[in-house]
Amino acid sequence: EAPLVESGGKVVQPGESLRLSCAASGFDFQDYAMHWVRQPPGKGLEWVSVISWDGLIMSYADSMKGRLSVSRDNTERSVHLQMKSLRSEDTAVYFCAKDLAIFGAVGAFDIWGQGTVVTVSS
Amino acid sequence: DIVLTQSPGTLSLSPGERATLSCWASQSVDSDFLAWYQQTPGQSPRLLIHSTSTRATGTPDRFSGSGSGTHFTLTISRLEPEDFAVYYCQQYGFSQGYTFGPGTRVEIK
Predict the structure, then answer these.
(1) SS3 call for A11
(2) Taking a contact as any Cβ pair under 8 Å apart, which residues of chain B between 19 and 78 contact chain A?
(3) Which of B72, B89, B98, B100 to mutate to test binding with chain A, by most A CBs within 10 Å of its CB?
(4) What integer is the mean pLDDT of A22-47?
């Protein structure tokens, strides 16, 4: 089983909301911060959000600040990204990724999911 | 925010050749917080190097990282067919934020 599996991506209209999920397995999920990174079609990587191992600290990219909410459930070994007021420029593959550093958010991203595709189009 | 630029944008080389990729930062980056990733078409990024020069688990030793301050380098000593990909540098850390460079494409000449 893949260590990180994203879901929830789909085609939505501008202004709509969407919730992405990432299911983790094979590592001590509760000990690591988790990130979301996105990649628009044919473009580079953009960090989106991080949530600390205990779910108490979150941070968001300026480009999406105010439109995002990240959460996690350590019992369910999952992390979620709630996005609202979606725009065409939010169209991208959204990856979740595990922080390398235990009990911190200061590591590189050592495990990545396969990504889930979000398309914002009317 | 720290801005990362990478050069060259595209590197055209033959298998067996040496590749040198550069990553430049708009301000000094702590060498403990600089990473390199590899991405092949249709795949997720893969961590190659973190903390400037520490190879991630499974990274072949033909990959090496170096640098300090505002200039960092990823070197591939002898290109293998599977190394033709896009490479991203990244600076990371909760207090300094998380930024990726635009990427360098290494293509077969």
Answers:
(1) strand
(2) 33, 35, 37, 39, 44-47, 50-51, 56-57
(3) B98
(4) 97
Q: Are B63 and B49 in contact (CB under 8 A)?
A: yes
| Residue A31 three-state SS | helix
Nearest to A45 among B57, B88, B97 (CB): B88
pLDDT in tens, A33-42: 999 999 999 9
What are the start-end ranges of the E strands in B15-98? 19-29, 34-39, 46-50, 54-55, 63-76, 86-91
pLDDT of residue A71: 98
Encoded amino acid at B49, one letter:
I
- Which pLDDT tens digit goes with each residue over A83-113? 999 999 999 999 999 999 888 778 899 999 9
From the CA of A81, how many Å to the nearest CA of chain B?
17
Residues 6+ apart with CB under 8 A from B83: B19, B38, B62, B76, B106
